[in-house]
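Re: beginner question about structure tokens

> Can someone show what the tokenized structure looks like for a real chain? I only ever see the sequence side.

Sure, here's an example I had lying around. Input first:
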Amino acid sequence: MAKLRHIAIAVPNTDEAAKFYEHAFGMKRVRESVSAVLLSDGVISLAILDNKTSHEALGHNGLHHFGFIADNVDETAAKAEKSGAVYADKAENVAKRFANRGQMEDGKIAAAAQKQDQRKYQDPNGIKFDIVNDEHARNSWRLPV
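And the corresponding structure tokens:
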């Protein structure tokens, strides 16, 4: 069974939003990039996307997407598609995400990052969600799985 472990919001000021969640709820910063701040409580990852610089959140405000960790990404993705989900990613976005996370070496995805699996979908209502493996959850979301 997949587990809901990631929520992403888009805001105009990531640092200000991060400080709110740090002070109000005790969340900890686990990763920062040019387009996002990631916080965690040790169970859930909260990505705060910059809606002025994140290529995936430009102009968006509020809830952006959520994510599931799956034991088997292929099987979970197949079930989601059979249930009406539509794959919603582009090769150029995949490359940009690895670059934003500092996981590129000489224009190629770093060896350690190649084990990560992340798939972006939309449900039948158009709501965006991710299906990822443990490796992605550890390296990108910084969750202890």
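Each token stands for a local structural state, so reading them left to right follows the chain. The mean pLDDT is 92.
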